[in-house]
Design the sequence.
């Protein structure tokens, strides 16, 4: 101890410079250190989901989930395989050994998934591998409500304006929307009107499909250049869909004009609506949308939260009729309060150390003798 004290006093300038470097380096390292409520504790896993609208739970299990499970057996590093089948949705989770490279595992799963996708039922959508998420994936919950806009209009804003902006924030893996109502032009067929017009359901479906499908416009060749021809869709509103003609085979004694005179609006009610919702979102006691911001495993919770909040503030001028609440669920608040309490504890500890050193190192005897002599 004497040698350490003597060396420090002899090289006091070097000791002071080293102390300053340590303080500066520690401050910068603490500022850039990623913080979270809990450390990453989940093993490497890959989750894939397959939507199958119209299929029951047992059909999803036998026609979608089981073939995917069979295809995934034997993937290198696979430890546990779990699955869940519900009405219209299949979820398969692959858990890998500790230390497995997640990107390599996702590549192996994707290769097998491409081979099995072609054998799934026609009602099933292509399987989707979900983005990698941290153990505590939800970094922020954002509520959207409006007194002027409907949920369909808010869904359009959330899907095409808010979500793409939040997905561009570094560290954000996914933004899920709860309570969404996707805009749809719906053809509600009336069986009585269908029978009175002598039209089949297949003919109505074919007419709606052909009228709303996009087609290539091709190009126009000139002597000097080639001009692209854009195809303008025939249906842009409910009124356009009502006017689509239903093609029917020629009946004996009827002219072609009379055979093709039936329109979709004659046999069905065409309205603007949304698909049957899976769930609702209640924000501040009123129906709305709930945006769940999920974090990438390598993302910094504090930085991602602040960047998302900055993006929301930048979007607010373009959402004049929408109320946005980002304080519903915010784990970064817990981290910020913890850091604040830690700073207060360190400050109090430093003050106590200074007081203790002053009490024990101050030469009280000399000070007392000096005061008596005076």
Sequence:
């Amino acid at each position: 101890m004497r040698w350490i004290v003597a060396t420090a006093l002899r090289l006091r300038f070097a000791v002071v410079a080293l102390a300053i470097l340590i303080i500066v380096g520690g401050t910068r390292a603490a500022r850039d250190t990623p913080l979270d409520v809990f450390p990453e504790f989940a093993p490497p896993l890959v989750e894939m989901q397959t939507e199958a609208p119209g299929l029951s739970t047992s059909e999803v299990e036998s026609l979608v989930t089981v073939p995917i499970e069979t295809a995934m057996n034997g993937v290198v590093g696979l430890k546990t395989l779990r699955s869940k089948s519900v009405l219209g949705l299949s979820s398969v989770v692959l858990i890998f050994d500790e230390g497995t490279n997640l990107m390599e595992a996702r590549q192996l799963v994707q290769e097998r998934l491409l081979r099995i996708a072609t054998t799934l039922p026609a009602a099933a959508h292509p399987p989707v591998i979900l983005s990698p998420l941290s153990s505590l994936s939800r970094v922020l919950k954002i509520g959207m409500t409006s007194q002027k806009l409907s949920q369909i209009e808010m869904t359009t804003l959330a899907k095409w304006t808010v979500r793409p902006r939040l997905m561009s924030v570094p560290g954000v893996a996914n933004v899920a929307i709860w309570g969404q109502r996707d805009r749809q032009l719906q053809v509600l067929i009336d069986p009585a009107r269908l029978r009175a017009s002598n039209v089949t359901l297949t003919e109505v479906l074919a007419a709606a499909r052909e009228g709303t499908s996009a087609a290539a416009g091709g190009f126009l060749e000139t002597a000097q250049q080639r001009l692209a021809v854009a195809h303008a869709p025939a249906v842009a509103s409910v009124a356009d869909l009502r006017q689509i003609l239903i093609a029917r085979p020629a009946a004996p004694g009827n002219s072609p004009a009379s055979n093709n005179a039936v329109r979709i609006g004659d046999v069905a009610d065409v309205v603007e609506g949304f698909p049957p919702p899976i769930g609702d979102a209640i924000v501040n006691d009123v129906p709305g949308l709930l945006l769940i911001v999920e974090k990438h495993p390598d993302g910094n919770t504090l930085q991602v939260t602040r960047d998302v909040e900055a993006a929301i503030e930048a979007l607010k001028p373009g959402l004049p009729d929408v109320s946005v609440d980002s304080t519903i669920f915010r784990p970064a608040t817990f981290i910020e309060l913890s850091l604040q309490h830690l700073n207060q504890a360190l400050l109090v500890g430093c003050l106590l150390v200074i007081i203790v050193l002053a009490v024990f190192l101050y030469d009280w005897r000399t000070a007392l003798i000096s005061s008596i002599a005076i």
